Amino acid sequence: MRTSTNNTDVRRVNRNRVFRFINHTKETCMSEISSALEISGPTVMSIVKELKEAGVIREVGEYESTGGRKAKAIASVKDFQYTIGVDITLNHVGLVYTDLSEEALAHRRIPKPFRNDKQYIEEIADIVEQFVEENDVPQERILGMGVSLPAIIDQTRQMIPNSHVLGYYDVPCEEWISRMPYPCVVMNDASAAALAEVAGEKRQESMVYLLLSNSVGGAVFLRPENKNGDEEGNASSSRVYMHEGDHWRSSEFGHMTLYPGGEPCYCGKKGCVDVYCSAKKLAELENGKLERFFEKLEEGEPEYRDVWDRYLDYLAVTVDNLRMAFDCDVVLGGYVGSFIGPYIKELRSRLAALDIFDHDGSYARACRYQKEASALGAALYQMEEYISSI
Ligand SMILES: [Zn+2]
């Protein structure tokens, strides 16, 4: 019995690997899949047949022959399913939609101050429907949607126990889910942004995502333990998983103490990472406009250079602490993450000086998704569930 269970599992895992491989390439053929994934030709052939029957892949032409039969070119049917993502912040609503490509196909950001009432949630539902209409997304192919909030989300009890940012306490997720026009999940904004970062990755490696927006948060993705593949010797197809913590409060990096007895934090403690590393620390010099801060920094304004140097010093200690705790790459996301690209070397040289093992800071990098990462991640949650089920 055990052997047959294993065979079924291997078959399911291989089917998913084949689909993901096809989905990650523009087009491919069976021999390419077979050699890339080290799965036998006949197995690939039967999986491809199944996926074609399921409608998730199709033939898109033939490759030039070098003698013998021409190989069929196959590709995934990207528009087979769609999902929508919504990001709620204190002053804005962000929207994104995606398909099997897992890219943001369109995004929109609307100024809309948050209100703690049911009417507000209904207005968000209307905005989602407008967005779907404007972009001609076929309703019958919308799998579902996600809403990201700057809040702790207790997924077991389906509750939002608190959001300091929104002043929102003990709200059932159902308040949102029941009013949205499509099957909906509610997520933490930092977890959503981090999901956008890992979803499209071919290589699934552990990763810490540090969200540097008007508050500091993040997420930790860990690689499952079976590093060397399953019992059949196949490379593992297992995806990284998010470490959520016993109380859904993992990765509250903003409230790690960076400076004992330091400046007061909105959480009530002193010297939290949030006080020194939030985007506000920089944007406050320009009435909240972070973009202006970076323009002045680039222009070489000495005061801005000093503030930035101090900011990088604090950020480096935070990132080094995360590296010491998790021993994996650290991705810098959020508002600051989208501007840090040109300055990553400055951060890395600080990290190299702090690194007791390799004297190397190259494990830190800027995020790939700079616009509407939380909205995209909220859309990707259900898309990833769907792709995992293929
Ligand atoms: Zn704090």
UniProtKB/TrEMBL annotation:
Pfam families: HTH_24, ROK. Keywords: Carbohydrate metabolism, Xylose metabolism. It comes from the Bacteria. GO terms for biological process: D-xylose metabolic process. Belongs to the ROK (NagC/XylR) family. Transcriptional repressor of xylose-utilizing enzymes. This is ROK family transcriptional regulator.
